[in-house]
Design a protein that fits this description.
Blueprint lengths: L9 E5 L4 E5 L9 E6 L4 E8 L8 E5 L4 E5 L10 E6 L4 E8 L8 E5 L4 E5 L9 E6 L4 E8 L8 E5 L4 E5 L1
Antiparallel strand pairs: 1-2, 2-3, 3-4, 5-6, 6-7, 7-8, 9-10, 10-11, 11-12, 13-14
């Protein structure tokens, strides 16, 4: 079980170890915790590294070439974030990246294109609902707003890659 009841957190797998990392969440107050779940032993470990602040409604995705996990945006009940943070499971360190989202937002959904190792983030909420698609390149720490947009502005939905076609599908 998780260290405490929580909602609105984001999890991503380290595909080299098959461990799952869950970031933040809320029970009315934001958590800054990173929790590691090992399915092979059914064990849960709270990591020493923490998010820059307690936050929820963030979205996290793995760069499958480096096995680092990137978390985007989120909120803490009073502030929305434009931050991108990198978590390295191999040494339990968290780094705030120089690149930022075009605006602070929460409720976005992010997924990697495993052929390019770029991460795409869709929609979100930052004062208004967003239809934006942004591309993050972890190798150069750059973010690009794409000209394509979602059919309508939305948040609190979920996106995932079909790894055989490298297309990303969003639901909800």
């Amino acid at each position: 079980t998780l260290p405490s009841a929580r909602s609105s957190f984001s999890c991503a797998e380290n595909s080299s170890t098959h461990k799952i990392y869950c970031f933040g969440g809320t029970d009315g107050n934001g958590f800054d915790q990173i929790v590691e779940y090992d399915p092979s032993s059914d064990t849960l470990t709270t990591k020493s590294a923490t998010l820059p602040s307690g936050r929820y409604w963030l979205s996290c995705a793995e760069n499958s070439s480096t096995h680092k996990i990137y978390c985007f945006g989120g909120e803490d009940g009073g502030n929305n974030f434009d931050q991108i943070v990198e978590y390295d499971p191999s040494n339990d360190t968290l780094t705030t990246k120089s690149a930022t989202l075009p605006s602070a937002r929460w409720g976005l959904s992010c997924a990697e294109n495993s052929s390019t190792h770029k991460i795409y983030c869709f929609g979100g909420y930052g004062g208004d609902y967003l239809n934006q698609i942004v591309e993050y390149d972890p190798s150069s720490d750059t973010l690009t707003t794409k000209s394509a947009t979602l059919p309508s502005a939305r948040n609190s939905f979920s996106c995932a890659e079909n790894s055989s076609t490298h297309k990303i599908y969003c639901f909800g």
